[in-house]
Amino acid sequence: MRLPFIKPADLTAEQKPLYADMKSTIETSFKGFKCMRHDGALIGPWNPWLHFFKHGAPMWNLVKEMYVTATLDKRVREVAVLVTGTHFHAAYALYAHTLMAEHRGLDDDTIATIAAGERPSTLSAAESIAYDAAAALLRGSVLPEPIYKRTVEHFGQEGAAQLFYFVSLYSMISVTLNAFDVPAAE
Question: What's the CATH superfamily of 74-179?
Fold first, then answer.
């Protein structure tokens, strides 16, 4: 970890509103994995976002907006997020989203296969499309036309866009986690 944890008592006046918003949302929406230390300091991507709140606040607002407006099935989103976290070897993202994927019904073998960088044979049609689209996008070139067409046909234009934006969002989050060497929670 390259940045010290910020205890609530040590927050600046500029950091306090962002911390309060993050803490409130975390307590109501991000259950099942550790997001906060015993002293109230936030862990995961929230700590770097607090340190650099001018950049972190817009990132946090994007995360909230993506989750509030998401209509894609939660398991489909988790597949895409796990593919992305695996691509970047983002320890905290893999920790948190392994637990979220379990909570949303993905079995341990499926999660382990994705985390190993492989495509599970147990995915539903929608989950398979999410896996293929995320994996193709993370190779760093234009999404192949057959994958694009299959994604739009299955999810519609809006759903396909959401899927692509979730891969983008978790690429950003994973890079943040890796830049500041944020480990998985203990």
Answer: AhpD-like (1.20.1290.10)
Domain spans in the chain, listed from the N-terminal domain onward: 8-69, 74-179
For the stretch 53-64, pLDDT in tens is 999 999 999 999
Q: Is the pTM of this model over 0.70?
A: yes
Q: Which two structure tokens, joined as six digits, stand for 44?
A: 């995961």
Please count the other Cβ atoms lying within 10 Å of the Cβ belonging to residue 139: 10
Q: Which two tokens stand for residue 50?
A: 């607090």
> What is the 3-class SS of the chain, one letter each residue?
CCCCCCCHHHCCCCHHHHHHHHHHHHHHHCCCCCCECCCCCECCCHHHHHHCHHHHHHHHHHHHHHHHHCCCCHHHHHHHHHHHHHHHCCHHHHHHHHHHHHHCCCCHHHHHHHHCCCCCCCCCHHHHHHHHHHHHHHCCCCCCHHHHHHHHHHHHHHHHHHHHHHHHHHHHHHHHHHHCCCCCCC
